[in-house]
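User: Teach me something about this protein's shape.
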Amino acid sequence: DDFTPVSREIDVTHGYGKKKYTEKVITTLVGVPDLLSCDWFNPKGSKTNTTKKDYQPIPLNAVVVKKWNNKTPPVEKQVVLVTNISVKDPFISFDRYDDRSLIENNLFRELKQNWHFEHPPKKTKEGVY
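Assistant: First, the predicted structure itself:
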């Protein structure tokens, strides 16, 4: 298989007014298809339909981040994203993961920050939901 790196360059603007400048930011990824297959990972849950003759396990692929925002990590610290979607364009998986992390780190944190699980606003089911 051909594990050709794919790069994306974007312009990022920093600062305001006279101190405003633009930086070219490069991210380089490598898609690794058909890493292995996973019997227990399927849409209907663990072991569902795995004994059928026509069962096809879902192939797992990987996206290796070689350079992220102009920073090249050492090999032992490179980020590897495991996915079940195609890695012909590894930026699709990368961008989805980036969106997911934003949701987890920003939205969920902000939602939970003022919510005290030991002391919900009401003790009834309607008050909690």
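Now, about its shape. Helices lie at 90-113, 125-128. The two ends are 50 Å apart (CA to CA). If you'd like, I can walk through any region in more detail.
User: That's plenty for now, thanks!
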